[in-house]
Amino acid sequence: MSSELKIKVGLEVHVHITSLKTKLFCSCPSNYVNLDPNSDVCPVCLGLPGAIPVLNEEALRKAIMVALALGCDIAPSLMFSRKHYFYPDMAKNYQISQYDGPGTAAIAKNGAVWLGEKKIRIRRINIEEDPAKSVYPTGSILTSPYTLLDYNRSGIGMLEIVTEPDIEDAKEAKSFLDKLKSILEHLDVCDCSIEGSMRADVNISVTGGERVEVKNVGSPSDVKDVIEYESARQRAAILQGLKVQRETRHWDSDRKVTVSSRVKETDEDYRYFPDPDLPPLPITKEYIERVKETLPELPDSRIERLSKQYGISKYNATVLVMDKALADLFEAASAEVKDYERLSNLLINDYLRWINDRNMKLSDSKATPKHIVQLMQLLDSGVITIKIAKEILPTIILEGKMPREIVDELGLTRVSDEKLIETIIEEVITEEPELVTKVKKDPKVANYIVGKVMRKTGKRADPKLVNELIRRKLGV
Amino acid sequence: MKVSVDEELVRKLESLALISLSPEERREIVKDLSRILDFFNKIDEINLEDVEPMFHPLSQGRLRKDQPRDPLPRDEAIKNAKKKKDGYIIGPSTTGG
Ligand SMILES: [Zn+2]
Q1: Which of A66, A413, A440, B17 is the most interior residue, by most CB within 10 Å?
Q2: Interface confidence: ipTM more than 0.90
Q3: Contact B90/A146, CB-based, under 8 Å?
């Protein structure tokens, strides 16, 4: 491990503006998921000659919201450029995008995302259209003799958010993407839980090497894997005295490796020029002001507010807000729950962790605020123990059953009858009489006895009470 | 900006445009392109220091409401595609050779 070989990472994040009802430049419905191929298309998004694109006003508003949230300078005029390339997913042979060049500019520049004290600079934000979807009949781009094309995705509105190379490791990249995702969700720009709604190109270089671009990485956790893999690969190459050359690589998410792109890398020549179909549109200060007034509460202020209003730790507030849906669940449930810290702990340490451990998404969970409120009430009133709460969470998440119902059906209510617990403690001691002397030498043995009692009650006894009774009974 | 047109440049343009020219065509194109660029070089002589560049004859674009409309019926949408399969349009392999 050579720590002096620093890595530098810049990301180009592409996000679908999933809140739009129509595509970027035509009125085709934007919800193309699960539709028959080529059933959500029109002359504009098919790229037929003579079809004229007209911008979706809501796309402009959303782009301005993101620009404001990231503290960017906003261009005085909205302009689109044609980015030319020949590929089956782009019938008109150019993508309508934005470009910083003579006479044209990206909608926004010079912003930042803050990760605590660390600033990740945003170079620019572009509005652009998504190309069609290519389907490879053999499942692999390398072996397919032809490409199947579905234009339903063609023309879907996207934002490209480009950072400066300020990211220094895989963990930081993950934090950046989590924060960005949370900002986009709070702005109601992108529901990032939709498969493929957030993709990224990862630019990564190691001290002494050239920049390597890994294209089209499908999810934030893949971005983390890419950076870990590439930094190890590039460091190893440099330490062996090899050169890291400038190249484009692809991420193989099944094998978890990057593969050099077989396409010969010439200087990319997209021949950008201003799109004559889309005359510039002034973005007035008044318009920006109006959008600013509609900005919702953003993650940083929500974290502040949650920790103040509910008295929960800053850490808990941050974890909740990084998943907007989780913070929403917390706030909805808090109306009927008294112990906010306990509620936030339950949501973070038990609920969220269970979902994350199974690679599920929060949106897959069937739990509503009602479920969480009832679960908390069962806990608070001592009907169930935290162990039981943990045990029934999966049924709540997967089946949406009410906690009370599960508890009644399975007879999981807490055993708080002291007499009964004492009888069980006696049972344990009869089985292992040596425990009595052991516990007097080493009070920690009490924990072992608690465990035995818990097992005998099917985890339904309150461990604190059991502990107390053992100590009282054995005089520890 | 002065660009000198030679066969190498034409070859690059061929590859960008995904076409291939015969040697005679290439020689012709070198001449044509040089002539066209000469016209632009002439225009470049004009002093435009205080003139804002214009990229569009129309001064202002317009916006559209975010209201969905029915897309094309699928048969009509892919009617002009030469090759199709199960509703998909068939395109070339993207890594072939
Ligand atoms: Zn369309």
Answers
A1: A66
A2: no
A3: yes
The answer, for A276 touching chain B at a CB cutoff of 8 Å, is yes
Contacts with B, A 66-95, CB within 8 Å: 78-79, 84, 86-89
Count Cβ atoms below 10 Å from residue A50 Cβ, excluding itself: 5
Chain A residues closer than 8 Å to B64 by CB: 22, 27, 54-57
Q: Is A137 exposed, middle or buried (0-12, 13-18, 19+ CB in 10 A)?
A: middle
Residue among A27, A59, A146 whose CB faces B93 most closely:
A146
At CA A282, angle to CA A278 and CA A287, rounded to 5? 125
- For chain B, the structural domain boundaries read 1-47
Nearest to A226 by CA among A205, A208, A244, A251: A251
Tokens 């003799």 locate to: A145
| Inter-residue contact A94 to A140 (CB < 8 Å) | no
Q: Report pLDDT digits (tens) over A46-100.
A: 999 999 999 999 999 999 999 999 999 999 999 999 998 888 899 899 999 999 8
A141–B95 C-beta distance less than 8 A: yes
Is domain B1-47 in CATH 1.10.20, yes or no?
Answer: yes
